[in-house]
Amino acid sequence: MKVLVINAGSSSLKYQLLDTGNQQVLAKGLCERIGIDGKFTYKAPGKDTVDAVDVPMPTHSEAIQAVLDALVDKANGVIASMGEIDAVGHRVVHGGETFAGSVRIDDRVMAALEACIPLAPLHNPANITGIRACQAVLGPGVPQVAVFDTAFHQTMPPVAYTYPLPYEYYEKDKVRRYGFHGTSHKYVSQRAAAMLGKPLESLKLISCHLGNGSSVTAIDGGKSVDTSMGFTPLAGLPMGTRSGDLDAGILEYLMGRYNLDIGEMLDILNKKSGVLGVSGVSSDFRDLGQAGEQGNRRAALAVDLFNYGVKKYIGAYAAAMGGVDAVIFTAGVGENSPEQRLAIASDLEFMGLKMDPAANNVRGKETVISTPDSKVKALLIPTNEELMIALDTAALA
Question: Annotated catalytic sites, by residue?
Answer without folding.
Answer: 149
